[in-house]
Amino acid sequence: MKIGVIGTGYVGLVTGTCLAELGHEVICVDAIRQKIDLLNNGGCPIYEPGLIELIRAQRQAGRLSFSTDLAAMAPDRDAIFLAVGTPPKPDGEADLSFLEAAVAELAPHLAGFTALVTKSTVPVGTGDRIERQLAGLRPDADVAVVSNPEFLREGSAIGDFLQPDRIVVGTDDLRARETMQRIYAPLTSKGAPLLLTDRRTSELIKYAANAFLAVKISYINEIADLCEELGADARRVAEGMGLDARIGSRFLEPGPGFGGSCFPKDTDALLSTGRAAGVPLRVVTAASTANRERKRLLAARVAAVAGELKGRTVAVLGLTFKAGTDDMREAAALELIPDLQRRGATVRAYDPKGMEAARDLLPGVTFCRDAFEAGRGASAVVILTEWPEFRELDLVRLAEEVEAPLLIDLRNLFEPESVTRAGWDYVSIGRPAVAAQEATAAVRPAVARAAGAAA
Ligand code: NAD
Predict the structure, then answer these.
(1) Residues 46 and 11 placed together within one structural domain of the fold
(2) Catalytic (active site) residue 368
(3) Which of 175, 178, 361, 373 is the one with CA 20 to 30 A from 268?
């Protein structure tokens, strides 16, 4: 089928590329010329594992192209996906201005029957609103507005799109249903469930799912805090909970609090919807508040174990909101690092993919080539993002770089035993803090050298 995608961000680019992979002919449009030029020159404006290779393959196959020319793209498309941003307004309500601008730009160029598909996460009733907007601009247009929320996760977006847990399509228009069924046939024929609903239900499914996941994270984070006080092990508690099929083991990993472009904004937008509808969403409110508070107190958590931070150096490993992406939106680093600096600490940081995006957001930070350079002279090393390479970190070598071997692991990447054996004091989430084991020359060369020099 002939498909257009408006917006080549994390969702639009993955959607367009994967739809091409499914055999459709796709044109992706973005308002930012540099992004389109980069894509047309074989580059990729975002980091997402496997994406650049898939873009190259689909362009070569002649199924995927990029353009800024929305007017040329629109007329002959069976479906046009809207994948523009819906960022939060100051009061938490979703800002639909990008979506409305895209619809206004598109309207004059619609020709023939078009399914206009909202991939962006939008509040219930947005489909109706787009329909009214189109009726004002192009009363003659033969268009059906469809909700098709996206559930991909950054870092595993391609797999999530091509092997989805479910595809949700919200429309009462039979032609649009058929179009959507044909678009997703390569996935549904392999067993992907397609849930057909009315549009409002589909719009709400996305928020209800994300808010539920946010609740799950905030819940396990608070249980982890309790574990720390009670001397229990949060990971085993989560394991014991997760083996219950009614609960499930995923999303039960305590950490620094959720971030990213979805959970914080989508919980806030759902709360805003609840307020407008006069329905108090107390559970979601609590999850959102707990998360905000958790992130606000991260530097205090560091100071509580590292002591006075003034004049000392803290190394931060991992800046992005999660591993596998360069996305810095609502990352915990944006709360932790400025607070460490306010407390007088010098911050050295390293992230495998996020430093370019982080540079402008985190003034005064020394960005380093690797974890060892970041650790140089540090009184504490904080792990903030669960990048696989940090799991493999040579802690013995890192210990040689730091001033004090204190590892504050906000992602529970290590077994305490292996860290303390490498000579570190180890503080993680939801587990008792443990002190370094007896240092030996083999595991603490820096200390051994210092002792040798003193003798
Ligand atoms: P993004 O900011 O990365 O990308 C949006 C893109 O749209 C940008 O490239 C921007 O230039 C472009 N754009 C804006 N207005 C335009 C216009 N008028 N014409 C052409 N291009 C235009 O955003 P994203 O992370 O891809 O999110 C997009 C939507 O998908 C949001 O509603 C988000 O909530 C939802 N979503 C995101 C994720 C995720 O993991 N990022 C997952 C599921 C759903």
Answers:
(1) yes
(2) no
(3) 361
